[in-house]
Write a structure and sequence with these properties.
The chain is of the alpha/beta class. It is about 40% helix and about 20% strand. Helix 8 packs antiparallel against helix 9.
Length: about 270
């Protein structure tokens, strides 16, 4: 049986420090029938030039699509439309695929036609590569996922190409939480006891930003997605947003780092997770 083609989609914009490592992590997989499709929203720091060099060196395996002024969500949608693979996955331009991940995924899909979505563990790391926490792949209740956003890390999720059509498309909302909820409502996520990816969190991204307002806005958007799919108004996601809003109204934003650390402690998140 022919080995299935796996397409990994990456929205790209000004990540010159990290994108080469991301591309190499895909090229270094011990699985040959793979393509890495990077959609550039108009990089000005040379990120696109790095990818173009790899595209010339590895034709068919690395593809750069120029999509000026596209958002992350739009780039993801463009990548989906251009993808040739029967199996899809996505990583950020500062994320990496772990060795052996794609081969494991391809073999599972090839040998079990009943599988539609597969996920492995995801290590969340700092820019220096230090482990912050591990998102562990496990079976989960969809309603709990909607209320907490736990359980699923998008860079470690792979799915058949048909799944995107069956969930109604990606929807250009900019929120992969929304996409993963729609997948989880239709399909079981098959968990694999293997690290599939490393997801980098760095300053400047919403959930890592020291900017209180950026954090509050990201919490609000996640809460809205949760609510859209029936999430409780007193869910952990709702409470997280309410706390941020109360701090803003009372002008106590300086307390946010302390409360955030307490939240992490309650979740049991530590450097050994």
């Amino acid at each position: 049986m022919k080995e299935p083609l796996v397409t990994i989609i990456t929205p790209l914009l000004n990540t010159v420090e990290y994108v080469e490592k991301s591309v190499k992590s895909v090229l270094d997989q011990d699985y040959q029938n793979i393509e890495h499709l990077l959609v550039d929203g108009g990089s000005t720091d040379g990120s696109d030039k790095i990818v173009r060099d790899y595209e010339l060196k590895y034709p068919g395996k690395v593809r750069l699509i120029e999509a000026p002024n596209s958002t992350v969500a739009e780039a993801w949608e463009i990548g989906y439309q251009k993808a040739k693979g029967s199996i899809l996955g996505s990583i950020g331009a500062d994320d990496t695929c772990e060795p052996g991940a794609v081969k494991t995924v391809a073999n599972l899909f090839k040998n079990d036609p009943s599988l539609n979505v597969i996920q492995g563990h995801c290590d969340v790391v700092s820019p220096d590569g230090d482990l912050i926490m591990r998102n562990t792949a496990t079976t989960f209740d969809v309603s709990d996922f909607i209320n907490t956003a736990y359980y699923v890390a998008t860079p470690s999720v792979y799915y058949r190409h048909k799944v995107i059509k069956e969930i109604g498309g990606l929807v250009v909302s900019g929120d992969d939480f929304d996409v993963m909820i729609r997948m989880a409502k239709l399909y079981d996520f098959f968990p694999v006891d293997q690290v599939f990816s490393k997801l980098m969190v760095r300053e400047g991204t919403a959930f890592k930003s020291k900017d209180f307002n950026k954090r509050k806005e990201s919490y609000y958007q996640t809460y809205l997605v949760s609510k859209k799919y029936g999430g409780s108004r007193i869910s952990p996601l709702a409470k997280r947003y309410y706390v941020a809003k109360i701090l803003e109204v009372m002008r106590l934003q300086r307390l946010f780092p302390i409360i955030r650390q307490l939240y992490r402690w309650v979740r049991g998140v530590n450097l050994s997770d």
